[in-house]
Write a structure and sequence with these properties.
Number of helices of chain A: 14
Structural class of chain A: mainly alpha
Distance between the termini of chain A: 12 Å
Helix content of chain A: over 70%
Radius of gyration of chain B: 23 Å
Oligomer: heterodimer
CATH superfamily of chain B: MetI-like
Number of strands of chain B: 0
Largest sheet of chain B: none
Radius of gyration of chain A: 24 Å
Strand content of chain B: under 5%
Shape of chain A: globular
Order of helices and strands of chain A: HHHHHHHHHHHHHH
Number of domains of chain B: 1
Distance between the termini of chain B: 37 Å
């Protein structure tokens, strides 16, 4: 319980720092932020209105307070390009990014877990050596290389999957999945390598435990021992890392969304950067950063709750 | 007879195996050295102007153009080499900056422990709480796109991770007898850090730095791919990969060549770092 309270208390300064950084971004712009946001051709009246809106004449602390208050009330300003409220744009695009994240995580785990288990049963065996070598290579392959190669193979050479575009789930579930296969595989490759190495190492340790020998002595089938007895105690760090990886993957989704023209948060951010739509950029950065912090927090919390070892260490320490 | 004499040759063999870095390590180092050499002396070597639009476009590899030409008729080999300048400058400079700041944070936190350790690590945690690419994106967007700002962005991202690793490594040495001996002899904290701790910490951190540089190169590539690194017409690997995407049907080389070079460079850096770590790994390094 104390560990949980500690983590909640820890969340406060982190959230403060993340929101303050997002807030300060506009201050980094050289010159008058209002002119920067509205563009050089803005009328003095428009600049004056935005000045008041952003509260630029007030002290910094108060400006920050207004920013957080507005954000909590769902007001992150409007795009100066199309006058759409930033929050609305984010709401439209969030499902695409989330679907991409979930699908790539699912793919990564579904592929990594069985291979890791097989490899761990024979350390230094053929499968182990191949999978270790291949995953070392995967780790050196950023999504902008994997994605391009996959498009070249599966969209340009063989027209199996679409190279770009997105079909909403509500419109056509089959096409939706099809349009997300290449993007999720692109993201999943590096994850597969990470999960594989992690689970393999933990699994090898677990398989040397006494209770595995006990299970074997009782005549249990190897498959049952591996999946029912060894997997669970070996997967704590996998679960943690998989959870924390959601944050790391967010960076990857930016690349993948641009590469495959998926209308997600990342695409919105990059488009807004190019059209110098700074309030939208600030909004997306805030959403992604706060989301990242909260997901990490939840994973951390879950870890304390799930793993009895951590729970006991925390309450006795 | 004690089994000792039998054990010694086995232990020695195991040790000897660990002491050789293997040919893959030297091949990796060779590749990185080659890229550094080409990038550093590109102006002096017989390499064409990377931005000259002289020849026919989309030529295949040949004698005039080693790796062919791009969609605007620019020499691909020259562009790959000049792009290496950006990648390597950002890669090494950002990690050097990261080592100075993150390293100082880590050594202080690990050596003095206590409250300063808590404060410094809290700062590092807060920095890690920001998604890396988004952070870099934001810095470059709001500060402006140029080599300096890209380097700063990636350096800032690298600081918390380096601080944590240096701290862990410092912790493992700060309690050792030789530090105690130095303290008993009346050495000041500063002297202990500089003369006793730093030389020991430098070895594991050195091998980690290779991997950190690889990550920085990948990060610069990501920014460049999104069009947010150094601006065109300056060649960058990420930028070239992105530009080539429009021509995947007709001339996939435009994307594949810079992809291949970046991949091999990152792989080589990872491999070199990994081999060095395995070579110098002592039990304490796991702390």
């Amino acid at each position: 319980m104390r560990a949980v309270v500690g983590k909640v208390l820890y969340l406060i300064p982190v959230l403060f720092a993340v929101t303050a950084l997002s807030f300060m971004l506009l201050k980094l712009l050289p010159g008058d932020p209002a002119v920067n946001i509205l563009g050089a051709s803005a009328t003095p009246e428009a600049v004056e209105t935005l000045h008041r809106q952003l509260g630029l004449d007030k002290p910094l602390i108060e400006q920050y307070g207004t920013f957080v208050n507005n954000a909590l009330h769902g007001d992150l300003g409007r795009s100066y390009q199309n006058n759409q409220p930033t929050v609305e744009a984010l709401r439209q695009r969030l499902p695409v990014t989330l679907e991409l994240l979930l699908m790539s995580q699912f793919l990564a785990l579904v592929l990594a877990v069985p291979i890791a288990i097989r490899a761990a049963t024979r350390p230094d065996g053929l499968l182990d050596r191949i999978s270790t070598g291949v995953s070392f290579g995967f780790l050196a392959l950023p999504p902008y290389i994997v994605g391009v190669v996959l498009v070249l193979l599966f969209a340009v050479q063989f027209h199996i999957f679409p190279a770009t575009g997105y079909t909403p789930l509500t419109q056509n579930p089959f096409e939706n999945v099809r349009s997300l296969i290449l993007p999720s595989v692109t993201l999943a490759l590096a994850e597969i390598a990470t999960y594989l190495r992690l689970l393999r190492a933990d699994m090898i340790t677990t398989l040397q435990e006494d209770f595995i020998m006990m299970a074997r002595a009782k005549g249990m089938s190897p498959r049952r021992i591996l999946w029912r007895h060894a997997l669970r105690p070996s997967s704590f760090s996998l679960v943690t890392v998989a959870g924390l990886n959601f944050g790391r993957l967010i960076g990857g989704t930016f690349i993948v969304e641009i590469l495959f023209a998926l209308p997600g948060i990342g695409e919105l951010t990059v488009q807004s950067i190019f059209s110098t739509d700074y309030l939208v950029v600030q909004g997306t950065v805030l959403l992604v950063a706060v989301g990242y912090v909260l997901v990490n927090f939840l994973v951390d919390l879950l870890y304390v709750i799930i793993d009895p070892r951590v729970r006991h260490a925390a309450s006795s320490g | 007879m004690l089994p000792l004499p039998v054990d010694i040759p086995i232990a020695e063999a195991a040790q000897r195996r660990r002491r050789t870095l293997g040919w893959m390590f030297w091949a990796s180092l060779g590749w990185v050295a080659l890229i550094i050499f080409l990038a550093a002396f590109a102006d002096l070597l017989p390499i064409q102007d990377p931005n000259a639009l002289r020849s026919a476009s989309n030529l295949g590899p040949g004698i005039d153009h080693l790796l062919g030409t791009d969609s605007l008729g620019r020499d691909m080999f020259a562009r790959v080499v000049y792009a290496a300048r950006v990648s390597l400058t950002v890669g090494f400079a950002s990690i050097a900056i990261g080592l100075i700041f993150g390293g100082t944070m880590g050594v202080i936190a690990g050596y003095y422990r206590g409250r300063i350790d808590k404060v410094l690590m809290a700062i590092a945690d807060v920095m890690l709480a920001f998604p890396a690419l988004v952070f870099a994106l934001a810095i470059v967007t709001f500060l402006g796109q140029n080599l300096r700002n890209v380097t700063i962005a990636i350096a800032v991202i690298s600081i918390p991770g380096i601080a944590r690793i240096v701290r862990a490594s410092t912790l493992s040495f700060a309690q050792r007898d030789f530090v105690l001996a130095a303290r008993t002899l009346g050495a000041s904290n500063r002297r202990i850090i500089v003369r006793e701790i730093l030389p020991n910490v430098a070895i594991p951190i050195g091998s980690f730095s290779f991997i950190a540089v690889a990550l920085a190169v990948v990060g610069e590539g990501a920014l460049a791919f999104l069009g947010l690194s150094v601006q065109a017409p300056t060649a960058t690997w990420g930028g070239m990969i992105n530009d080539g995407r429009s021509f995947l049907q007709d001339n996939p080389n435009l994307s594949l060549i810079p992809s291949g070079v970046l991949f091999i460079t990152v792989l080589a850096l990872n491999f070199a770092g990994d081999a060095l770590r395995a070579r110098f790994d002592t039990k304490d390094a796991g702390l």
